[in-house]
Design brief:
Layout lengths: L1 H18 L6 E9 L4 E10 L4 E3 L12 E4 L5 E9 L3 E5 L4 E6 L2 E10 L5 E9 L1 E2 L8 E9 L32 E4 L4 H6 L10 H28 L7 H12 L3 H30 L3 H5 L3 H19 L8 H11 L3 H15 L1 H18 L3 H22 L12 H29 L6 H19 L16 H17 L29 E3 L5 E3 L8 E3 L5 E3 L2 H11 L3 E6 L4 H10 L3 H9 L2 E6 L24 H13 L6 E5 L16 H16 L1
Parallel strand pairs: 16-18, 17-18
Antiparallel strand pairs: 1-2, 1-12, 2-8, 3-7, 3-10, 4-9, 5-8, 6-7, 9-11, 13-14, 15-16, 17-19
Helix pairs in contact: 3-10, 3-11, 4-11, 5-9, 5-11, 7-10, 7-12, 8-9, 10-11, 12-13, 13-14
Length: 691
Amino acid sequence: MKKIYLFLLLASVSLASVQSQILDPVKWSTSIKKISKTEYDLISKATIEVKWHLYSQVVPDNGPLPTNLTFEENSAYKLVGKAKESKGHTVHDPVFDMVITFFENTATFTQRIKLTGDKGTTVKGEVEFMVCDDTRCLPPSYIDLVFKIPAPEKNAETAVTPETSDNTETTDAATENIEEVIVVDSVKTEVAKDTLQASSEKSFSVVEQNKKHEKKGLWTIFLVAFLFGFTALLTPCVFPMIPMTVSFFTKQSKTRAAGIKNAIIYGIAIILIYVFLGAVVTWFFGADALNALSTNVWFNVGFFLLLVIFAFSFLGAFEIMLPNSWANKVDKQADRGGLIGIFFMALALAIVSFSCTGPIVGTLLVEAASKGGIAPFVGMFGFSLALALPFALFAAFPGWMNSLPKSGGWLNTVKVFLGFLELALAFKFLSNADLVLQLHWLEREVFLAIWIAVFGVLALYLFGKIQLPHDSPVTHISVGRLSLGLIVLAFTIYLIPGLWGAPLKLISGFPPPMQYSESSYGVGYTKLSDGSSVSSKQEFPEGSHLGPQDILSFDDYDTGLAYAKKVGKPVLIDFTGYACVNCRKMEERVWSEPKILKLLHEDVVLISLYVDDKRPLPKGEEVTSEISGKKLRYIGQKWSEFQILKYKANAQPFYVLMGHDEENLIDPVGYTPDIEDYYAWLQKGIGAFKK
């Protein structure tokens, strides 16, 4: 019997440790490195547990919380430049819809200082950071950093230590005597000691997810580029060259085998020319530099103007052409025959067709460059492969030429269609710049209005109601053109409800987010979950507001609890964060489920406590932390400490269902992406309250 009791006790303790944990996945250490007689590098190193990561110092607006190092002012030294960081992983985050850099395993931040006198000093600083894994995020932490700098040696020669990479952990003999490592634990509490245990995670690590996302992104770029390559074939600069090329190879090849061989070489030459262009872009800008530029204002404005120029060129305002002298010189080389002649034939194709392919290639390079890495290389390979295949195949099998449609006005229609697409895409880059600067010039409604106008005019063009330069007279509309016009018209109509708050999931990621708008649900109105609307002047309970999915929410624990007692409903505490990725996933993908949303609206009182709320605590409410002994500065720190002390947990999202006696109705849960599991959890907790 005693063994049974002991087993049950151990089981309950183990269950509690899995459900509620004080997580401490990052340890910080500091060291110094002598650079010269008066200059030192202050090195702050983060050692990160497996599956966790922290963010770079540079994160776009409306993104997760960046790592931030600050140093106390001291007349004994001055900072030299900004802190540098080791190389991390740069990916496109689909939740925040932005390019973000994060670190795994280790991260090093180096701040150079210069002594202003002949005495040593102690440099004190602080690092603010947040960490996440693939299911949760922790609230912001604030860790003290201490660096003891010795006094410069008098009459000593200036010894410059060769700089090493940010990731180095070694020092040479000249600096060993001044190295000091101070390990700082981010959480030191008795509570943490009792409950801090490693849990077995069944989900994939965030690193693996990002690697898969990178591969998926490259495949997407390849497929899009491949389709653009086929589209380029249908332009008036390229399509007529197919029979000319076939004629050349038919005359030059003595046998069919020779013709097939020359056609294959010709196709490979086309691919090599365009892939070389992509490789040059990748090499010139660097594998990650373009990725980082994707949130740069001038980068986005420049690409906006470039795409507008491309669009007007396709619409017939002017033609972008390379110098004729280039084409003439290449043609002379093509007459030489052999492998060299075939290569220059391919180069001649690229130059002569540039007025049509140039804007397409430019757009592809712009889009691929914004992804960074080898994306420009992959994009050019996909484009050139699609472009080369028909030329090579028709050159190898000239009989297929009989199946090709004749050249005509439809080729210019394809070109104009691409011009409208270029124009619409251009405003995505202008929107990026507006979002970074937070100018609110191109808010969601304005962006959608522009797209509605662009695609609306495109529909009229396809229906023959508008004609542009170089268009042939429209005597009738083909079935294909009519079908395409109907698709564009339907898409235009689909965009219109977005002006009044429709989510428009089909184009998610292109227009600005819902919150970046004049009014998310139409002027003067707020949309409710059941589809009805009420005036924005409607009075809400004191201290409440409309939270995620328009759920009535409180951001203060005591106020929300008092309201719950008044209306006789249980309390759902939502420990969350503004920069918590998985919190947003729960709100957008789980809470939006109708049966769950109905419970959240009707059967509970929601209290959302943001642990990364950077608003200062009101005067009179400042308290000293029971965990660290420091004064709490922000509202978010108050809620983070409350979660740790009461629930022995510090990860978000974290959900608690409790009664009016502040006791749990059911065990709390964290990130629960399975809709049925979360729904069952809510039902069980609400059912326990009603008993």
